[in-house]
Design brief:
alpha/beta; UDP-N-acetylmuramoyl-L-alanine:D-glutamate ligase; Protein-Tyrosine Phosphatase, Chain A; 2 domains; six-stranded mixed beta sheet; 18 helices; globular
Length: 441
């Protein structure tokens, strides 16, 4: 099919404009549509492509993207043709649906949108429902052996929850999207445990006193349940060595790796996944997951001089890990100072994030180009008010209207603050901040 770049861009931009998406308006105005009937009807119209290959389903507050990419890379390394569905994207929305690490051709995407646009309109589908159906169809037409499917939000009522997987994984539970998923960890866990199916092995990344009873109750569905932090995976003795060589950086990957190793052991017990019994290929797939799957924005180094790291961690549990690691790098002498370019969505729990932010860092507050973003001035004011209430200094707090300006300011500050031990620049707080920053490098 012969298409122009302009036609592809027009059609994809039309999806964002006409159909509710979280990127555009958050979880309101139809972007989040709880319930599965729309998705079931769409999948049926597509010929139920999700039933033509094996699947692994992954939910969780944090870590699910990393776990999905590692598992997909492991399957690919073992010789399977593998689909991978994740969200959100960083640069191109086709990143959400990859086969052996590659995005679908623009020609295919254009043809799909043209063919199904009347259906999208008549059923008022959300952007996520559209992309989920698109991914399922692309995987089927590509002839994948298996697909790793990440939930968008929650699990029980998520559009992806029409699949019948070989394994259901919940990576972690934390406070995020509480207005939709519940205000307690147990309530959030119950929503994410909604991906468990009768007779399907279930894996939970970590044991927690509040959430464990929720997951344990899955036994009434006869789900064989495993906790990764209690398991003793066959490659457990290699865990530290694997972690040190992984191209997915960040100390938080230790927990994700543990979950992946436990998942591989469960899959090994199924005849279809017999190729995973080659430990060398499993290890190779994990070590090179980011490059094999073209995975971006997870403790990703964007520059060496100055040293710039970016990460999409955006809720308190994720930011707690990231900020602690940044402080450790500076205190350990690897860097002389810390500069943080930070932006946040207006619906995030800023009151829980402010106490986690390193006190001795220099901050450039900014706002990405989305209506959901908290204005940079408001973020600066909130930080000043918090510090004043704690008797802390409000020096070295700056503000930039755009991510581009914020990055430029941070790089200028790094040049001024540079010395025998160079500064570290961290860019984060939101996927949207990371997406705009990556383009600048």
């Amino acid at each position: 099919m012969d298409i122009t770049e302009a036609e592809y861009r027009r059609l994809t931009e039309d999806l964002f404009r006409r159909f509710p998406s979280v990127q555009k308006g958050g979880f309101s105005g139809g972007a989040y549509k709880p319930g599965l009937q729309n998705m079931k009807d769409f999948a049926a119209a597509l010929g139920n492509p999700q039933d033509t290959y094996r699947t692994i389903h992954v939910a969780g507050t944090n870590g699910k993207g990393s776990v999905c990419n590692m598992l997909a890379s492991v399957l690919r390394s073992a010789g399977y043709k593998v689909g991978l569905y994740t969200s959100p994207h960083i640069l191109d929305f086709r990143e959400r649906m990859r086969v052996d690490g590659e995005m679908p051709p623009k020609e295919w995407v254009t043809a799909f949108i043209k063919e199904w646009m009347p259906w999208f309109d008549s059923r008022a589908l959300s952007f996520f429902e559209i992309t989920t159906g698109m991914a399922f169809k692309w995987f089927a037409e590509s002839g994948v052996d298996a697909a790793v499917i990440e939930t968008g939000l929650g699990g029980r009522l998520d559009s992806t929850n029409i699949i019948d997987p070989d394994l259901a994984i919940v990576t972690s539970i934390g406070y995020d999207h509480c207005d939709l998923l519940g205000s307690t960890l147990a309530g959030i866990a119950a929503e994410k445990a909604g991906i468990f199916k009768p007779g399907v092995p279930a894996l939970v990344g970590e044991t927690d006193g509040e959430t464990a009873p929720v997951f344990d109750s899955a036994s009434w569905m006869f789900c064989p349940l495993t906790y990764a932090d209690r398991a003793k995976p066959s490659l457990g003795y290699r865990q530290k060595a694997i972690l040190s060589r992984m191209d997915m950086k960040g100390e938080y990957q230790a927990m994700n790796l543990r979950t992946v190793l436990a998942a591989v052991d469960i899959l090994k017990g199924m005849s279809f996944y017999h190729r995973l019994r080659d430990d060398g290929k499993v290890e190779d797939g994990i070590i090179h997951a980011a490059s094999a799957m073209h995975f971006r924005g997870r403790w990703e180094r964007l520059s060496l001089q100055p040293y710039v790291i970016t990460d999409i961690g955006h809720n308190p549990p994720a930011l707690k890990h990231n900020f602690a690691q940044l402080e450790a790098l500076v205190k350990g002498g690897s860097f002389g100072s810390l500069i943080i370019v930070y932006g946040i969505m207006a619906d995030k729990d800023l009151s829980s994030i402010l106490p986690l932010m390193p006190v001795d860092a220099t901050y450039v507050f900014t706002a990405p180009d989305t209506p959901r973003a908290l204005p940079a001035d408001d973020l600066l004011s909130a930080c000043r008010a918090y510090r004043q209430s704690k008797g802390l200094s409000s020096e070295r707090l700056y503000c930039a209207e755009s991510v581009r300006d914020g990055v430029r300011m941070a790089l200028s500050l790094a040049q001024v603050m540079g010395g025998s031990v160079p500064p570290l620049v961290y860019i984060g707080g939101s996927t949207f901040v990371v997406a705009e920053a990556v383009k600048l490098f």
